[in-house]
Write a structure and sequence with these properties.
Blueprint: E1 5-13, E2 16-21, E3 24-30, H1 32-42, E4 47-51, H2 54-57, H3 63-71, E5 77-80, H4 86-95, E6 99-102, H5 104-108, H6 111-120, E7 125-134, E8 137-142, E9 147-152, H7 153-162, E10 167-172, H8 184-193, E11 198-201, H9 207-216, E12 220-223, H10 225-228, H11 234-243
Parallel strand pairs: 1-4, 1-12, 4-5, 5-6, 6-7, 7-10, 10-11, 11-12
Antiparallel strand pairs: 1-2, 2-3, 7-8, 8-9
């Protein structure tokens, strides 16, 4: 396993960065361009941009905002939300995205993953999975966590990878915004099932949460609130991870 990546996330609603708890009670956090530039300067390995209301509202991703954010970045940039077709994905790549994340549309039409991988390459296709605990395991939910599917997360990620997804963005809805740490049982179950990189999402606020995610098999840890509210900078988190023995990418400029 290579260096563990630290990935800030911009959840965007109507052009502003927002954050809530379990996808509810959203609060405005700031301007996406300004935050993207700040995280780049702090040493973020990648940035994820999710248009969180696009799928629910049945519209395309706000490409004009994506383009503005892309202009200030020189790190990998993943965009999701409202991607329903190959053409949607092409438009986002043209706007400056390096990777495209698909979630609800892929569940509804798994062949979309195969089409995206064939035309864009697996390296540009991220399968985003919103998961919650169920009596029988972990269930896939869609449309911003509002629609249960009855699908098992492990079997779904296996199918997604077989169809060409080159990376997983795995979010625990139970932990999202709670500050309770990543769901390491979820991460470990998925790690056993697939070999592609896994980005852990949902609940990470303390360095030890990211260490636990790494130990459970995650290749990267995604967070929002701790960075938006300046509880910790990306560079601060990387220092703490390195001190705990987690390999991270480092530059002298970050201190």
């Amino acid at each position: 396993m290579g260096a563990f990546r630290v990935v800030p996330c911009l959840d965007v609603d109507r052009g502003r960065v927002v954050k809530g708890v379990r996808f509810q009670d959203l609060r405005t956090m700031g301007d996406p361009v300004a935050l993207a530039q700040r995280y780049r300067d702090e040493g973020a390995d990648e940035l994820v941009f999710l248009d969180i209301s696009a799928t629910v509202e049945g519209r395309e991703t706000m490409r004009w905002v994506v383009g503005q954010v892309a202009e200030v970045l020189d790190i990998p940039f993943c965009v999701g939300g409202g991607v329903r077709t190959v053409e949607d994905a092409r438009k986002l790549l043209a706007a400056g995205a390096d990777k495209v994340a698909v979630n609800s549309a892929a569940v509804a039409n798994p062949e979309l993953l195969s089409q995206l991988a064939a035309l864009l390459g697996s390296q540009s296709v991220v399968l985003a999975v919103d998961a919650r605990r169920a009596p029988w395991g972990f269930e896939v939910v869609t449309h911003g966590g509002t629609v249960p599917t009855g699908r098992d997360v492990v079997s779904w990620v296996q199918e997604g990878v077989e169809r060409g997804a080159g990376e997983l963005l795995l979010t625990s809805i139970d932990r999202d915004g709670t500050g309770q740490g990543f769901d390491v049982e979820l991460l470990a179950a998925v790690r056993k099932a697939v070999s592609v990189p896994i980005v852990a999402s949902g609940g990470g606020t303390l360095p030890e949460h990211f260490v636990a995610a790494f130990q459970a098999g995650a290749d990267a840890g995604l967070a929002a609130s701790i960075f938006h509210q300046q509880q910790m900078t990306v560079a601060d988190l990387k220092r703490r991870l390195a001190a705990a023995g987690v390999p991270v990418r480092w530059e002298e400029a970050w201190g």
